[in-house]
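Working notes for the structural subgroup meeting. M.R. asked for a predicted model of this chain before we commit to crystallization trials. I am recording the input and output together here so anyone reviewing the notebook later can reproduce the run.

Input as submitted:
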Amino acid sequence: PAPPPSPPPPPSEELEVVIFKDLFPGDNKWTLHAVDGPGAFSQLAFGTPAASEASTRWSYSLQAGRYRWQLTDVFGDGLNPATGGNWSLSLDGEELGSGSSFGCFERIDFTVGPDVPPP
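Returned structure, recorded in token form:
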């Protein structure tokens, strides 16, 4: 007899990060972590806006789970909207957050797939 069919791949959702740089793109960095438990994180990805481009876009396919995204600014003034600086984060086309002036960091915790109880 034929072997049983393979199980379908786990559902995933597309995370999109877009950053429009300000005059100091090297001041900004973002990180994406999987939340493995209380205070336990695994870094999955990171990025810095490209100095040569007005905007930089990253996309990631994420499996079900809990995640934390954080954007930091080493100078502590976020992205300057007067010079075009802003960011947005979306999951499968639904905006999770956006902004510009955020101080030292902006953080968004989110869940992919069915609600997962906190660890």
